[in-house]
Design a protein that fits this description.
The complex is a heterodimer of chains A (611) and B (353). Chain A starts with a helix and ends in a 7-residue tail after the last helix. By secondary structure, chain A is an alpha/beta fold. In chain A, strand 13 and strand 14 (464-466) form a beta hairpin. The mean pLDDT of chain A is 96. Chain A is 43% helix and 12% strand. Chain B is of the alpha+beta class. Chain B contains 8 helices and 16 strands. Chain B is 24% helix and 19% strand. The radius of gyration of chain B is 27 Å and the shape is elongated. Chain B has helices at residues 21-27, 78-94, 109-116, 154-162, 197-201, 264-268, 295-313, 328-342, and strands at 3-8, 11-16, 51-54, 58-61, 72-74, 142-144, 169-171, 178-180, 207-209, 222-227, 236-241, 247-252, 283-286, 289-292, 320-322, 347-349. Classes of the chains: A alpha/beta (611), B alpha+beta (353). At the A-B interface, helix 3, helix 4, helix 21, helix 22 and helix 23 of A face helix 2 and strand 7 of B.
Chain lengths: 611, 353
């Protein structure tokens, strides 16, 4: 176990408040040398923090990045989410198994490497991907894997700074001048590690301009711009801000950077490429809503984003861009970082708030909405990274400029995360309403290896499947909904004709079962049963009637689930079934051959494991 | 609170802002089925059984949703009933629910809901189960059979909000979610003080008392109300006897000063009532043996001995130590007796439980 002096030191460093639990446990896990938080350590942390032991144990059990059994010096987590799955995640895992001589959940005898699987790591344009402690690596081939493993054998810190070059922010953006680069304009031009560089490019001018006006003015311009939330739900940002309760109490701005939707990596690129733009957007939001403290909740896998942001915050404080009386005004604002621990559901704003408070990431019922009672039950505005980063541009250049591109109902640009079987993958910024055809043909440069387009998953795992007849549908916030799909966070995962829709559905439904928080019945049981049926389909043991049972169950989940997670599986399910009913029915015949399903079954379901 | 108007099942009713749909329905005599809801603890909204239709556009859980002016609420229709049935089917498939061998049979809220919603067959075989560890005997007083648990969280809140002990919490996630009582997850090794509040709030047989085991299912027990004899709080207790007349269970009554709560003594300290070792008549010691005697004989013996001690050694050689099991009046009389008759202030009392 961790030494008592270590525990006391770490608790003293962060303070005894429960909201620090994630950071305390993370540091203790790193210090353990074997990436583990054993029960004795947990008991002592609970005592030291005056928390019930069950609360600490339940917390650790909720977040998949933590383990209570010893792992190894380097934990290797291989992504199995759909973008990596279509790119050959199974090959990566098998190569690692041979290379290290260990299976899932095992450590090498020298205590150096531990192998496990995980869900989306947010570097999907360079799939297949893995994480070694906090380093991210993409474009994995057998040769690259051997080289990477060798570098760790020769000792590397694995604290995020050793991430592969292919994962760097600027490298992730597709180099194509036909884009409408607004949020991405400065990435690659501005040095994210130097505030001077940001200031030279006009940084913090929008904040300076905002604090010279009134909060009502700022809300008015954001409302006028028609900016809608870019996290997935598309709620008008200005309207959300205007709902924040007024009064003398402490208020917060919360940036949702828990980018967990498989296939999404835009927020990571934004945070690592231009962190000050986010801080500036948060400060403007704080000014508009009367908040003086901002929190960025960054998923725990994004170590480099966290370090980049922390450095930016430190610099902004020294340069007077964060702190008291900003730019000679009455307005004060500071930003702090909160970290996630590996839970997709924490992207739901109330789960996120619970997680920030050191609780399990269960969603809260609404009302009260965060704008009434959010973090620590105080008014909080929760917005996505992309949304908040649009704000300084709107304030500086005006609502009309923002509305120059995109449809009237949801103007502006949208970041699209291209992954899958394309010749070119990465991040592009296009006017809202770009079509799938344009994205695939122009920016993705067509389907790889001369294969044919089969379908694209738009909006991530909770998004839907678009087939060829929807290639010309404008991808904005409202149009896809009419087709039963969502734009979501802007995922465009393209699959060619080699992709089996049943196998794809199996991975998607396994994801939902894995990520369900388990609080409400429809989602907790429903995700498990949907996954069960999908597995039977993949095994070619399902009866055709089970397809309808799946739809019924997903429908019940949609109507009855507590939060969006349980309401979502119906979208991939119905869209896949509608498009590929024939292939699903084929899988109901025991004699039907499907190598893709066979491979997934052999990989993920041997020895009775569910996923 | 200002009064507002809503439409409940087609009938316009007046209610107050801040009330939930469930509050209003209760006040109007409209029953909405619930499972995770319990009036003694904060709202959860997790089981989704109390979903009602709001404004013809959406479903909301009645236990969490505040009423708003002009809201139109439908508490039951075929679609709502089908949803509730679907949720119950999910629960039955997830756990191991067999009323044949469950102590809660007849007092189980899940059982009642299944009956009410017309569930008449067990869940199809082969569906995934959330199989949890059985921890039935580690605690002396509490029996935990988590495969009967619906994860409503009432125990977590009973412990955290009523007993303020915070022993229970959730662990795991999704289809592997379960309860824990600490880092080891063994109830008997936890900080549990066995007040039994969690058992009392458990809607199923997931938590029960060891004292009931094999002595009668809930439907066989008869309830009798009484007042706890242990301390001055005077908790109101519902005692349950089985068909043989044996006292098997105590529950805190909601209408007493304890508002449903009991401590470990009140909860489990009733075995003396029917103990064969219990004193039923005065005994006096004759030639080193205790033998039955009349009250006159016994009291004469005590009075005589007190008088002798007082005469030989003075009144301060005598002291009285009274019991919290006595009433205030009895305690008053005893100290009066010591001061006025014996003549000493040597009086003490055990009310330091």
């Amino acid at each position: 176990m961790s030494a008592t002096t270590d525990i006391r030191e770490v608790v003293a460093k962060y303070g005894r408040r429960r909201e620090q639990l994630m950071l305390i446990l993370r540091e203790l896990e790193s210090r353990s040398g074997c990436n583990c938080l054993d029960p004795a350590t947990l008991r002592e942390v609970a005592e030291e923090m005056n928390l019930p032991a069950s609360a600490v144990a339940g917390f650790v059990d909720f977040y998949t990045m933590f383990r209570t059994a010893p792992r190894a010096r380097y934990m290797i987590r291989v992504c199995k989410s759909t973008p990596c799955h279509t790119a050959g995640a199974i090959d990566v895992f098998e190569s690692l198994r041979k290379l290290l001589g260990i299976g899932e959940g095992e450590a090498t005898p020298d205590g150096l490497f531990y192998l496990e699987r995980c869900e989306c790591l947010g570097i999907c344009s360079v799939a297949p991907a893995m994480m070694v402690n906090y380093d991210l690596h993409g474009n994995l081939t057998r040769r690259r894997l051997a080289r990477i493993i060798r570098s760790y054998r020769e000792s590397a810190a694995a604290d995020g700074r050793g991430s592969g070059r292919e994962t760097a922010a600027a490298a992730t953006i597709i180099d194509d001048a036909r884009q409408t680069r607004r949020l991405l304009a400065d990435i690659g031009r501005v040095n994210p590690a130097r505030i001077a560089s940001y200031l030279k490019h006009g940084g913090y001018a929008a904040l300076r301009k905002a604090v010279a006006t009134t909060p009502a003015d700022v809300i008015a311009v954001v409302k006028d711009s028609g900016l809608r939330g870019r996290g997935g739900a598309g709620f008008p940002a200005g309207l959300k801000w205007s709902f924040v309760v007024k009064g003398p109490m402490q208020k917060y701005v919360i940036c949702n950077a828990d980018e967990g939707e498989p296939g999404t990596f835009k927020d990571r690129v934004l945070m690592e490429g231009n962190p000050h733009l986010l801080l500036e957007g948060m400060a403007i939001c704080g000014f508009a809503t009367g908040a003086t403290i901002g929190y960025i909740y960054v998923r725990g896998e994004y170590r480099r984003s966290i370090d980049t942001l922390q450095h930016a915050i430190d610099e902004a404080r020294t340069r007077g861009c964060l702190g008291a009386n900003l730019f000679g005004s009455e307005f004060s604002f500071d930003v702090f970082i909160k970290e996630g621990g590996g839970a997709y559901v924490c992207g739901e704003e109330t789960s996120l708030i619970n997680s920030m408070e050191g609780l399990r990431g269960y969603p809260r019922f609404k009302p009260p909405f965060p704008g009434q009672a959010g973090f620590q039950s105080l008014p909080s505005t929760v917005n996505n990274v992309e949304t908040l980063m649009s704000v300084p541009l709107i304030v500086e250049r005006g609502a009309d400029w923002f509305k120059e591109v995109g449809p009237v109902s949801c103007p502006g640009t949208k970041l699209f995360c291209l992954s899958g079987r394309l010749n070119r993958t990465g991040l592009v910024e296009l006017p809202m309403g770009a079509t799938l055809r344009e994205i695939i043909d122009v920016y993705g440069q067509g389907i790889r290896d001369g294969h044919a387009f089969k379908f694209a998953q738009v909006g991530g795992s909770s998004g839907g499947i678009l087939t060829a007849e929807l290639l010309d549908m404008p991808l904005d916030i409202d149009t896809p909904m009419k087709q039963g799909v969502t734009l979501g966070s802007g995922v465009v995962l393209v699959c060619d004709e080699t992709t089996c829709p049943v196998d794809f559905l199996l991975q998607t439904l396994a994801f939902f079962e894995h990520e369900s928080c388990g609080q409400c019945v429809p989602c907790r049981v429903g995700t498990a049963q949907l996954h069960h049926h999908a597995r039977r389909l993949a095994e070619r043991r399902a009866a055709p009637a089970e397809l309808d049972q799946m739809l019924e169950k997903a429908q019940l989940m949609k109507k009855a689930s507590f939060c969006a997670l349980g309401q979502s599986p119906i979208i991939p399910l119905t869209t896949l079934l509608k498009a590929f009913r024939g292939e699903f029915e084929d899988h109901c015949r025991p004699g039907h051959a499907c190598p893709a399903c066979d491979r997934s079954l052999a990989q993920y379901y041997r020895s009775g494991r569910t996923h | 609170m200002p009064s507002i108007k809503i439409t409940l099942n087609g009938r316009e009713v007046e209610c107050r802002r801040g009330q939930t749909i469930l509050d209003v329905a209760k006040a109007q005599g409209v029953r909405i089925p619930t499972l995770c809801y319990h009036p003694q603890v904060s709202r959860t909204g997790a089981c989704r059984i109390c979903l009602v239709r709001v404004n013809n556009t959406m479903f909301k859980t009645a236990c969490t949703e505040p009423v708003a002016d002009g809201m139109k609420i439908v508490t039951a229709d075929p679609e709502i009933t089908a949803m509730r049935r679907g949720i119950l089917e999910f629960l039955l498939a997830e756990g191991d629910h067999n009323c044949l061998y469950c102590e809660a049979n007849g007092g189980c809220e899940l059982q009642a809901l299944c009956h009410e919603h017309g569930l008449d067959t067990p869940p199809p075989a082969g569906l995934p189960r959330n199989a949890r560890t059985r921890d039935v005997s580690s605690s002396e007083g509490l029996r935990r059979e988590e495969n009967r648990c619906v994860l409503c969280g009432r125990c977590v809140k009973a412990c955290g909000e009523i007993q303020m002990n915070r022993v229970w919490d959730f662990a795991g996630r999704g289809s592997h979610a379960h309860l824990t009582t600490g880092v080891t997850d063994v109830l008997g090794e936890s900080d549990c003080v066995q007040c039994g509040q969690c058992v009392q709030l458990c809607p199923t047989g997931a938590l029960s008392f060891q004292t009931v085991l094999g002595r009668g299912q809930a439907w066989e027990l008869t309830r009798q109300s009484s007042i706890c004899i242990y301390c001055g709080v005077g908790c109101k207790i519902d005692f349950f006897t089985n068909r043989d007349g044996l006292l098997v269970k105590a529950e805190g009554a909601l209408d007493g000063p304890n508002e449903g709560h009991l401590c470990v003594k009140g909860r489990f300290g009733f075995d003396f009532v029917q103990s064969p070792k219990r004193l039923t008549q005065p005994l006096v010691r004759k030639d080193g043996e205790l033998v039955p005697a009349t009250w006159d004989e016994a009291l004469d013996r005590v009075a005589g001995a007190f008088g002798r001690i007082k005469a030989d050694h003075g009144p301060d050689a005598v002291m009285a130590f009274t019991s919290a099991k006595c009433t205030n009046e009895e305690n008053y009389i005893l100290q009066k007796f010591m001061r006025a008759v014996i003549g000493t202030n040597n009086v003490d009392h055990c009310a330091r439980l």
